[in-house]
């Protein structure tokens, strides 16, 4: 299965013509999962090769405007698109984000009188008090929804921190497990780890035929790792007829942060195939970055090293850092400097600088 | 005083790379007034020759997302800009819109924990039940704000329809009077008339010197239209030394609509120098336009004729109508057809098709 990350917006704080506000798509064969949805995301989607109608899940790292102000408009436009394929039952779009997202969407859709043509569900995870300075914590009274569901809204879950694992389990399906973990920022922020499940080895049917094993209960036993004794007395071992399994890929996408809350994060991001980390300001601006709850390239690389990530993508750049294609020789804010700053620290394969519309493939892993 | 309209977004329903969502600036010398603020408006402002920091007033025609989803983000970005000129007392930004806008802004800014560096005030006007089908009216319980003001918010007015004039007086200052009037749409929608005040004629000082009139009470009398008898017995008539006054200009900007509520609108828009009217679909799609609460070019021209408007600007086009610069020969949705449809009906000077970044000057009127 092919898998790619497509960066739709790589700018911090606000959208500009050079870097749109935060948005990133993890595309697998049929599906698009959107991570963050800053203002302008729907227009960036139109400019990209992706199909907006393929978005089935949306994950929001935190409630700063540059990460969610595009969401009501995106849902309205998805609805206009899906009206053309009316008739069949629409699957709900699942939206995951910090407590307060449900109210933001409900109020925005209600006051704009937006009637969606598909159902949506907001699952909220509840931050803890150590994720931001006190003034960044919103009173839970203000994040709670009063009143009934929006007409197209279905009841979502409220997810609390797992006190043992120190994370939030958002979704588990046949292919993926997605968890959220806590970050430190001006307001509570989160990262996501998308773990593809290991694909168990298939039976080598040709070899089974050769050996004279007939389809039936023996097949099941062999697939489960057991050995089978044939009528002719020959023992067939599982390892001889079952192909090796393919390990799942791991993609980790962090929201804005200037640090972690606990070392559970390293465990969750351990050996990430791709780790997307913010680097709002360059290393010379570290004090300012920390003051505003942000990271620099070497901070990102340090974290990537601590979890032995294989590939590091820097993202969420202050608008002062123009894309390299627009860089002038005398520009004192040089995005390529940021790449060097991270690369001089990072011990993994490669540091990639995110730009709007950049696609980063996540190749299938070698059989283990 | 120079005056121009700059179209930042001319598309209906949602923003696209060709036509951004609704936004339009009326620029006078120092000030920018923004009419509607669809998603992406702040990025369009950056692409234009206008300075976002010059926006002092914002008017929202109605609460559909394509007219207001860009507002929270715009305010946040204005705040980032104004931080660089900190120190001096910031004037509040006045925002005018239908009931519900205050809640939308308050919830959006509160949940995103946005701390603006300037004060803002939302003045709401209250629609009447005949402005939309029943399902388009929002229960006033849902538009009311509970709780206190946002930290940077100042108490705004709630403005009810003037039962005699059939309009809402939003603002009256030394230069302008701005009124809102009701339109019929899927949800309550409004238009705005911006009436520049007549500039009284100045004294012709050279001629006064020639005639031997000295500065003092005589100047005042002459300016007030009275005659003055000089010491030498000569009578000086006001009309001889006072220049003729300059009539004020009138700009009318209508929100989405498929019709009017009463004929007060014609009176308010009477002899508009520039009238901006929506034309979402072309004349061949009139039934569909009406069904969705929208207008066609000849409907816009009919209304412009009914108030003897001098110039008609068509705006708010379905995204199927590409800008003329991108038009292909075989495109069945031809924006130039829409211009012809309006021009064949319109009795005023000119029909203009709005495009993103088009500027339309409003010339000073001849002295009356
Ligand atoms: Zn951010
Ligand atoms: Zn943030
Ligand atoms: Zn509209
Ligand atoms: Zn509308």
TrEMBL record, chains A, B:
Its cofactor is Zn(2+). Residues 20-294 form the Metallo-beta-lactamase domain. GO terms for molecular function: 3'-tRNA processing endoribonuclease activity; metal ion binding. Keywords: Endonuclease, Hydrolase, Metal-binding, Nuclease, tRNA processing, Zinc. One of its GO terms (cellular component) is nucleus. Homodimer. NCBIfam families: PRK00055.1-3 (NF000801). This is ElaC ribonuclease Z 1. It comes from Erpetoichthys calabaricus.
């Amino acid at each position: 299965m092919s898998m790619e990350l497509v960066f739709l917006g790589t700018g911090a704080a606000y959208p500009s013509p050079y870097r749109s506000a935060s948005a990133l798509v993890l595309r697998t064969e049929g599906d698009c999962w959107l991570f963050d949805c800053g203002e302008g995301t729907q227009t960036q989607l139109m400019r990209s090769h992706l199909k907006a109608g393929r978005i089935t899940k949306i994950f929001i790292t935190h409630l700063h405007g540059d990460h969610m102000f595009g969401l009501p408009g995106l849902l309205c436009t998805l609805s206009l698109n899906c009206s053309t394929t009316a008739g069949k039952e629409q699957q709900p779009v699942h939206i995951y984000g910090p407590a307060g997202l449900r109210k933001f969407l409900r109020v925005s859709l209600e006051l704009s009188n937006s009637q969606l043509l598909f159902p949506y569900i907001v699952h909220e995870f509840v931050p803890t008090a150590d994720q931001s300075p006190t003034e960044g914590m919103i009173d839970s009274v203000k994040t709670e929804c009063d009143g009934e569901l929006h007409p197209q809204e279905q009841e979502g879950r409220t997810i609390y921190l797992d006190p043992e694992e120190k994370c939030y389990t958002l979704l588990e399906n046949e292919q993926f497990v997605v968890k959220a973990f806590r970050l430190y920022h001006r307001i509570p922020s989160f990262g996501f780890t998308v773990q593809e499940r290991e694909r168990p080895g298939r039976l080598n049917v040709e070899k089974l035929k050769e050996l004279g094993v007939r389809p039936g209960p023996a097949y099941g036993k062999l697939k489960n790792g057991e050995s089978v004794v044939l009528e002719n007395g020959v023992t067939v071992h599982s390892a001889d007829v079952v192909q090796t399994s393919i390990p799942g890929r791991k993609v980790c996408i962090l929201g804005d942060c200037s640090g972690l809350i606990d070392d559970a994060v390293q465990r969750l991001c351990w050996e990430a195939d791709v780790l997307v980390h913010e680097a709002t300001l360059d290393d010379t601006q570290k004090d300012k970055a920390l003051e505003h709850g942000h990271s620099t390239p070497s901070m990102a690389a340090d974290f990537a090293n601590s979890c032995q990530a294989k590939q590091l993508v820097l993202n969420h750049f202050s608008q002062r850092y123009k894309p390299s294609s627009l860089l002038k020789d005398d520009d004192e804010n040089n995005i390529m400097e940021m790449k060097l700053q991270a690369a001089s620290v990072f011990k993994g394969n490669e540091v990639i600088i995110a730009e709007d519309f950049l696609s980063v493939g996540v190749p299938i892993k070698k059989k283990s």
